Automatic annotation (TrEMBL):
Cellular location(s): Cell membrane
Segments traversing the membrane: 29-49, 69-89, 146-165, 171-190, 260-279
Protein name in UniProt: Multidrug ABC transporter permease
Source organism of the structure: Micromonospora globispora
GO molecular function terms listed in the Swiss-Prot or TrEMBL record: ABC-type oligopeptide transporter activity; ATP binding; ATP hydrolysis activity
Domain ABC transporter: 249-564
Residue span, ABC transmembrane type-1 domain: 34-314
GO CC terms in record: plasma membrane
Keyword Cell cycle: no
Membrane topology reported for the UniProt record: Multi-pass membrane protein
InterPro entries: ABC1_TM_dom, ABC1_TM_sf, ABC_transporter-like_ATP-bd, ABC_transporter-like_CS, P-loop_NTPase, Type_1_exporter
Entry keyword set: Membrane, Transmembrane, Transmembrane helix
Length: 567
């Protein structure tokens, strides 16, 4: 799914939460409309049952007319069958609409995350995205689901009001005036609930993000003795969130009580008035029975209306979070007319630093400041805008998909995800087993796989937490080698491994990437000595180039940088 201007039926309208919910409802118009129609039939069939019972009492029992009794009995049976069939089909449509809205929200959220790319962590907290996929999709799905029942409830109440007005104007007026009054009382509870739910969800997202940060850095936190402090802070924030949750629950409990108390009180009033009118002879015995039936029936549509107000409020609050994410614009966008690139490898040039990567060569970049090397890698992969060309064409003139396909930047911030290790190393399932095994050999990671109970079929836990830092680094390197891009940029790929493992990786990396363009940002002498060409960068500029041994002898600044690494 691509995001285009609002109005495209395949594009979420993210100008407001209400428009987004309308867009979701319009994704499957037949099912959404069908659910509403079936809900109306389902509710109206139930609303007409008391009328059929009343007619059966008046025409069949009071006048002792067996034919009339049989006829109205069959009519009641038909209404029951119609109500049952419409209810079953309505429920099927409702479940489909619920799932469609919930999981379409997941899809647009993932698409928005992919669209933002590397800018996502800087623009929105991880807890916000997690909250959408765990809690908000349920509320959004429920808001789409309740629309059908809410509409059916309104039509049923109108039907009952018309019947009551025809039988007794005072009773009909009680219904016509009483129902809006009940909904007004419920609205008074909905407004503070709306505000408190929004504040609660925002605080919940912040706490979720903090929990993720703590878990991801738990080893470091324990190493510096900061676990008690962070634990105390998290506990305090958790208790504050709990207090906010109790305040929200207090309003929700009042709303739940109102859903029972107000319709119940209203129905007691209707029943009492109907009984008085029957005693005075203003209505017949059958009409009195029908009124009792209406009082029992009205509980359902009235509760559906209050439930609709509650769920639509929750869905609106949840949709606001989704809309906030959809409104975020990516830092990098495709040009209006992307330029096509020639086939095959070409020179990759970073004008700002003066770096020139010649095709098919294994180049190493050593920088006095690690952030300079990282900045160059970001420009080469077009994760930030910069004056970089490939085949003489600026990367900014190309489609981002083309850049990502031809240039891969692999750093130590990449994650391992839950799933089979084989799928983790080859997520596109494009490589054969031999290619994967060769990449593991080049990354010196075969021992990791051998130690797993099911080898490549073993499941990886979230973020690969069962592996050490060095093991995760080697698996990330293997994944980059399996991808086999035209140009591969590796940022400190051996910083977390021991010297013996680093030597094996350095010996094998050049052979694994033979004929492909490779840049390794590192200050490790073991890797630098195996490179075809070494580029030395100081203050963000290339100041020297050549083989590792020549630079050691001719460039004191380079020798000092490498010596620090050796020390």
């Amino acid at each position: 799914m691509r995001f285009s201007p609002a109005g495209d039926p395949g594009t979420p309208d993210h100008r407001s939460a209400t428009r987004y919910l309308v867009w979701l409802a319009g994704r499957h118009p037949l099912l959404f409309t069908g659910a509403i129609v079936l809900a109306v039939v389902w509710m109206v069939a139930q609303a007409l049952m008391p009328a059929a019972v009343g007619r059966a009492v008046d025409a069949g029992l009071t006048h002792r007319d067996q034919d009339a009794l049989l006829g109205w009995g069959l009519a009641l049976l038909g209404l029951g069958v119609l109500q049952a069939g419409a209810g079953i089909l309505r429920h099927r449509c409702a479940v489909h609409n619920w799932l469609g809205a919930a999981y379409r929200t997941v899809q647009v959220t993932v698409e928005a995350a992919n669209r933002l790319g590397a800018a996502l962590p800087r623009r929105v907290a991880a807890g916000e995205v997690v909250a959408i996929g765990t809690a908000d999709i349920e509320h959004i799905g429920s808001a789409i689901d309740i629309t059908a029942r809410g509409t059916g409830a309104v039509v049923a109440i109108v039907t009952v009001a018309v019947i009551l007005l025809d039988a007794s104007v005072p009773l009909g007026l009680v219904v016509v005036l009483g129902v809006p009054l009940l909904m007004g009382v419920v609205a008074l509870l909905i407004r503070p609930l709306h505000r408190q739910q929004q504040a609660y969800r925002e605080q919940e997202g912040r706490l979720t993000a903090r929990a993720g940060d703590i878990v991801s850095g738990l080893r470091v936190v324990r190493g510096v003795g900061g676990e008690p402090l962070l634990s105390a802070r998290y506990r305090a924030q958790s208790q504050a969130l709990r207090a906010d949750g109790l305040r929200v629950a207090r309003v929700e409990s009042l709303l739940e009580a109102a859903q029972i108390l107000l319709p119940g009180a209203f129905l007691v009033l209707v029943t009492w008035l109907g009984a008085r009118f029957a005693l005075r002879g203003e209505i017949s015995a059958g009409q009195l029975v029908a009124f009792y039936g209406y009082t029992a029936f009205l509980v359902s549509p009235l509760r559906n209306l209050t439930e609709a107000a509650d769920k639509l409020t929750r869905g609106h609050v949840a949709a606001r979070r989704v809309v906030r994410l959809l409104r975020l614009a990516p830092e990098l966008v495709d040009p209006a007319r992307p330029v096509a690139l020639p086939a095959g490898p070409g020179e990759l040039v970073d004008v700002r630093s003066g770096l020139v990567l010649r095709p098919g060569r294994f180049t190493a970049l050593a920088a006095t400041a690690p952030e300079d090397a990282a900045a160059i890698a970001d420009r080469l992969g077009r994760y930030v805008d910069g004056d970089v060309t490939l085949h003489g064409v600026p990367l900014g003139d190309m489609a981002l998909a083309t850049v990502r396909e031809r240039i891969l930047v692999a750093d130590n911030y990449a994650h391992l995800f839950t799933g089979p290790l084989r799928a983790e190393l080859d997520p596109h399932d494009a490589a054969d087993r031999a290619t994967v095994e060769a990449a593991l050999v080049a990354a010196s990671a075969t021992d990791i796989v051998d130690a797993l109970p099911d080898g490549l079929d073993s499941r990886v836990a979230e973020r690969g937490r069962e592996f050490s830092g060095g093991q995760r680094q080697r698996l990330r390197l293997a994944r980059a080698l399996v991808a086999d891009p035209e140009t591969l940029v590796l940022v400190e790929p051996t910083s977390a491994v021991d010297a013996h493992t680093e030597a094996r990786i350095a010996d094998r990396l050049g052979a694994a990437r033979r004929g492909r363009t490779t840049l390794v940002c590192t200050t490790s002498p073991l890797v630098l000595s195996r490179a075809d060409q070494v580029v030395f960068v100081e203050d963000g500029k290339v100041v020297a180039e050549g083989p590792h041994e020549e630079l050691l002898a001719a460039e004191p600044r380079y020798a000092a940088t490498v010596s620090r690494e050796e020390d």
